[in-house]
Amino acid sequence: MAGRREKVQSIRGSRIAIAIVIGVLVGCVFAFLFPHGFFSSNLPIQDRQLVKKNVQAGSSCESPERVNMLKSDIASLTEKNAELQKQVRQLTAKLRLAEQGKDQAQKQVMVLGEQHKVGPFGTVKALRTSPTVVPDESVNPRLAKILEEVAVGKELIVALANSNVKSMLEVWSTNIKRVGITNYLVVALDDQTAEYCKTNDIPVYQRDPDEGIDSIARKGGNHAVSGLKFRVLREFLQLGYSVLLSDIDIVFLQNPFEYLYRDSDVESMTDGHNNMTAYGYNDVFDEPAMGWARYAHTMRIWVFNSGFFYIRPTIPSIELLDRVADRLGKEKAWDQAVFNEELFFPSHPGYYGLHASKRVMDFYLFMNSKVLFKTVRKDANLKKLKPVVVHVNYHPDKFPRMLAIVEFYVNGKQDALDGFPVGSDW
176 forms bridges with which residues in the sheet? Predict the structure, then answer.
């Protein structure tokens, strides 16, 4: 009996201990939730409202509607994030292309804007004419004022001259006036030439003093002066004018502006003397050691003449002038060779070619002296043709040949060209 009572008392003791522990835990919970007492009325209204909101929020989080709404929001944000990441990748790729200077076609589309669908076979035509630059008169207000008076239709003939070519300048200007051309301008490279032009009613422009240019302009020969024109012409293009650049050893027989196409950045006279050399041909290089592959096909064209070309005020045209002027300032090179290299060399590793459109002038209308003295003067039918200009570029005895050209085409003296050799005496 005594053992049974001890067991009952032990169980009762355990229950009491458990009850005490539960009571302490419940007290702790209430103490945490109600620090100001369970029946306290001192709880601030704002705190009570906050507790109420928290309780409501807790209960709403458990509702299926709320869970579905949150899932929908998460899905929407995930989709937007994916789209933003895609845009970031696209912009990064475009930036990388722009920085590396690659994929010119895509960059052009980015600049020009709208993309186009391809039309039916045989109807697709690419853009051939670059847009002109926005004129900037601030680069040379004095020249801008002169060009407003001289130019016709925002274009004019421009020639550079110093006192070394005074006799040829007289023939050049006399025939321009005879043809009736009014939109022309001589850039005088020294005071004597400027005075001569003013005395003979020739539109003239003399640059502001620049020792780097003036020393060459005063003393330089034909090639040295020719190199200056690329620096001088830049301002004309910046002012928004198209220029027909002319050397002084040219005889004008018709108005050249009536024969221009104006569909390219550069439209130039050729040094070629027939259809193949002037307009290009497929030239085959033979290397027997290669056996079956001994014949290599090459494309060839004779160079553009840098002494007579029409250039429009476009970005590629100005870049051409900058490239040529920069190279001539660093290299001892012929300006015509550099002019053609920059126009024709394609892009290749380490070099970005110039994206300029070009046109070759009709070599019978815009005639070089090789065509005249080698071919035309010996052909009865060709002698009846009247060229627009004749450029005495192949011969060093320029002045007497210019006079003979005037005698033949202007004064009708049929044997005026006969006394000259085909080439030069030396």
Answer: none
CA–CA separation, 54 and 60 (whole Å): 10
CA–CA separation, 161 vs 194, rounded Å? Answer: 9
- 340-396, pLDDT tens digit by residue? 999 999 999 999 999 999 999 999 999 999 999 999 999 999 999 999 999 999 999
Q: How far apart are CA 4 and CA 395, in angstroms?
A: 144
- Identity of residue 326: D
CA angle 302, 306, 308 (to 5 degrees): 105
The Cα-based distances of 304 to 277, 342, 344, 352 in angstroms read 11, 11, 10, 20
Q: Are 359 and 130 in contact (CB under 8 A)?
A: no
Residue of 303, 299, 392, 300 whose CA lies nearest to 339? 303
**CA distances for 43 relative to 34, 46, 52, 129, 196, angstroms:** 9, 9, 13, 83, 106
Residue 12 tokens read as: 């009762």
pLDDT in tens, 163-222: 999 999 999 999 999 999 999 999 999 999 999 999 999 999 999 886 555 555 555 544
Coil, helix or strand at residue 364 = coil
Q: Minimal CA–CA distance to 246: which of 258, 259, 234, 233?
A: 233
Q: How many Å apart are CA 28 and CA 32, to the nearest integer?
A: 6
Q: Distance between CA 391 and CA 82 in Å, rounded? A: 66
DSSP reduced 3-state for 286: strand
User: Which of the 8 DSSP states describes residue 34?
Assistant: -
Task: Compute the residue count for the chain.
Answer: 426
| Candidate from 29-38, 191-200, 252-261, 350-359 with smallest mean pLDDT | 29-38
CB 150 within 8 A of CB 203: yes
